[in-house]
């Protein structure tokens, strides 16, 4: 009986046979069939490479070309442009910073500071492409906070003016260099340069020489250390002939007088007639020069330049006006030099003279209806008699008046060491023909003889005329620089001493009883001077008020000219200013000061 076997299925023996046979599922012959069954369309790739070696060539060539390009670029950067790139890298790491030189300090004759410096830093704002000054405290705050902008800071200073408005027209101010100045002078963007006054006149002395430092910074631009430092050379300090205390007094008195007279503007200038040293120079209205530097404010700066009173104008040297009766000093010298007038020559004052249909009157007759009878030169100066000088003009003609005006440097600059000095105007027939296409009329000569008509002078020029008499026939060039000061004569030996003395005698009587400078009638110190009331064509009939004078009357130590624009009569407005200035200047507590000034 057959042994019973376990049944595994009808196909099992056949499958076993396949496995054990050489032609089963896993035989070499059917290997590809197995792959196709499990991974249809599978191609590992290496079979093709193995089968096609030329396929490796493009890949290999690409790699070689790529590496060659990289090599060439590295060679170019490291070898050919290596020095340049190293320099650029150093520039990113190392910076050169300018240390700006301090400007020279400006002092008055007694050592009082008129222009100084405060520490500050210059910051270049890259976004705005603008340079601005910041305080030392602000710069330190930036350093502490490691502000990346600290790499853009440069050591600088800001100009300060302690006496502000009172010295604005003398000292001037510094302002940022303009594009035109950058091209012409070689300054850097953001540099400050003198714009007017002494700051501009002596820019080269005051500026100094900038220094610098080399610093190392990190990747953020923060300063790490200083590698090298060359200190700046500060500008030269300068001393001026100005007396700051006198300047202060003149400014205050002039401002008060103008306010009282309801006048907008005026000026005053004082000088030592023995050498030409300017002792005070005031122009009103003034401005605060710190607005341009320490308290930089574009709005306030624009306001200064837009005001109709023009506070930026230095009226003492740049303003020109009809001189009025102060010109009678010139007419007196012209008359005496002509030989047609001497000490005993008298002219009858009947109140008016006629030139054809035109009437010319004396001020005393116009205001009070009175006449003065026979008048000689001394009395004519004392009383400022117009009739006398009308007749003088008619006798000597315009040629002599023009000649003497030019001899005393009218119509040209006196050469004061400040920018923008005006020349004034000495008119002539040729000038009138060219300007107005008209001939010179006899009436023009009469007007010129009393300082009216076309003649124009600056307060400085009127001061020059007065100083010529005060110093007995010598006119010195007005100067402001006391450092290495040397007197320079502009006019001398043009007329005899006796003729100058005759004119001086008349000027001495002006502030005496009966003269026109009534505020000085009781003044204890003998002085000399000339009032002036100048018409200038104002529709309301306003006049400029002048007073020019010197003191003491003998061996004068100071000449002073005061002008109040459209303020009235010279005796009423300008003379009181001079009186109060002299009262202060010659007071007992100024004795030592005056002694020091005139023994230098």
What this model shows, in words?
This protein is an alpha+beta fold and 600 residues long. It has two domains: 92-239, Penicillin-binding protein 2a (Domain 2), CATH 3.90.1310.10; 244-598, Beta-lactamase (3-Layer(aba) Sandwich), CATH 3.40.710.10. The chain is built from 23 helices and 21 strands. The strands form seven sheets. Strands 2, 3, 4, 5 and 10 form a five-stranded mixed β-sheet that branches. The relative contact order is 0.10.
Characteristic terms for this protein:
alpha+beta; 23 helices; 600 residues; 2 domains; Beta-lactamase; 20% strand; single chain; Penicillin-binding protein 2a (Domain 2)
Shape: elongated
How many DSSP H or I helices?
23
Residue-averaged pLDDT: 86
- For the secondary structure, the number of strands is 21
> Stretches where pLDDT falls below 50 for ≥5 residues?
1-10, 22-29, 593-600
Tell me about the largest β-sheet: 5 strands, mixed
CATH-derived architecture of the largest domain: 3-Layer(aba) Sandwich
The fourth-level CATH homologous superfamily of the largest domain is: DD-peptidase/beta-lactamase superfamily
Proportion of residues in β-strands: 15-25%
Radius of gyration: 46 Å
Instruction: Tell me the distance between the termini.
Output: 162 Å
CATH topology of the largest domain: Beta-lactamase
């Amino acid at each position: 009986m057959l042994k019973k076997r376990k049944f595994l299925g009808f196909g099992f023996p056949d499958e076993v046979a396949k496995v054990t046979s050489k032609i089963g599922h896993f035989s070499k012959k059917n290997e590809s069939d197995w792959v196709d069954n499990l991974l249809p369309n599978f191609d590992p790739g290496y079979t093709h490479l193995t089968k096609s070696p030329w396929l490796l060539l493009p890949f290999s060539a690409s790699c070689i070309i790529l590496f060659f390009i990289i090599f060439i670029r590295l060679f170019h950067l490291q070898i050919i442009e290596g020095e340049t790139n190293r320099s650029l890298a150093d520039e990113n790491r190392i910076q050169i910073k300018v240390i700006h030189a301090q400007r020279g300090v400006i002092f008055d004759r007694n050592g009082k500071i008129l222009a100084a410096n405060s520490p500050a830093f210059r910051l270049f704002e890259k976004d705005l492409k603008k340079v601005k000054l910041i305080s030392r405290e602000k710069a330190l705050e930036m350093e502490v906070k490691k502000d990346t902008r600290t790499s853009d800071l440069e050591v600088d200073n800001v100009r300060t003016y302690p006496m502000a408005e009172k010295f604005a027209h003398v000292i001037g101010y510094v302002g940022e260099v303009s594009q035109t100045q950058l091209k012409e002078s070689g300054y850097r963007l953001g540099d400050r340069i003198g714009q007017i006054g002494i700051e501009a006149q002596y820019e080269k002395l005051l500026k100094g020489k900038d220094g610098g430092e080399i610093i190392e910074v990190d990747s953020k631009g923060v300063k790490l250390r200083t590698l090298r430092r060359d200190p700046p050379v500060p500008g030269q300090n300068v001393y001026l002939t100005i007396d700051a205390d006198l300047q202060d007094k003149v400014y205050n008195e002039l401002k008060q007088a103008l306010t009282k007279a309801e006048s907008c503007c005026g000026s005053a200038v004082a000088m030592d007639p023995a050498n030409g040293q300017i002792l005070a120079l005031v122009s009103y209205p003034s401005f605060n020069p710190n607005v341009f530097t320490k308290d930089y404010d574009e709005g306030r700066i624009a306001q200064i330049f837009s005001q109709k009173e023009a506070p930026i104008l230095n009226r003492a040297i740049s303003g020109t006006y009809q001189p009025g009766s102060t010109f009678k000093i010139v007419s007196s010298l012209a008359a005496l030099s002509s030989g047609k007038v001497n000490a005993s020559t008298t002219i009858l004052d009947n109140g008016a003279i006629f030139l054809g249909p035109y009437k010319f009157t004396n001020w005393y007759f116009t205001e009070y209806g009175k006449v003065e009878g026979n008048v000689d030169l001394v009395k004519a100066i004392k009383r400022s008699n117009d009739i006398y000088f009308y007749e003088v003009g008619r006798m000597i003609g315009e040629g002599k008046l023009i000649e003497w005006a030019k001899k005393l440097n009218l119509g040209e600059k006196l050469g004061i060491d400040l920018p923008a000095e005006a020349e004034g105007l000495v008119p002539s027939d040729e000038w009138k023909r060219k300007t107005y296409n008209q001939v010179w009329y006899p009436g023009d000569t009469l007007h010129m003889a009393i300082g009216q008509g076309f003649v124009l002078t600056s307060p400085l020029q009127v001061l020059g005329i007065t100083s010529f008499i005060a110093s007995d026939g010598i006119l010195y060039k007005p100067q402001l620089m006391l450092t290495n000061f040397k007197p320079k004569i502009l006019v001398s030996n043009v007329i005899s001493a006796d003729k100058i003395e005759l004119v001086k005698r008349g000027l001495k009587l002006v502030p005496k009883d009966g003269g026109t400078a009534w505020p000085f009638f009781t003044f204890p110190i003998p002085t000399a001077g000339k009032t002036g009331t100048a018409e200038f064509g104002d529709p309301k009939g306003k006049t400029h008020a002048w007073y020019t004078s010197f003191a003491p009357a003998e061996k004068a130590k100071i000449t002073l000219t005061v002008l109040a624009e459209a303020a009235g009569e010279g005796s009423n407005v300008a003379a009181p200013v001079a009186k109060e200035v002299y009262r202060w200047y010659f007071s007992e507590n100024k004795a030592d000061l005056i002694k020091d000034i005139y023994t230098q």
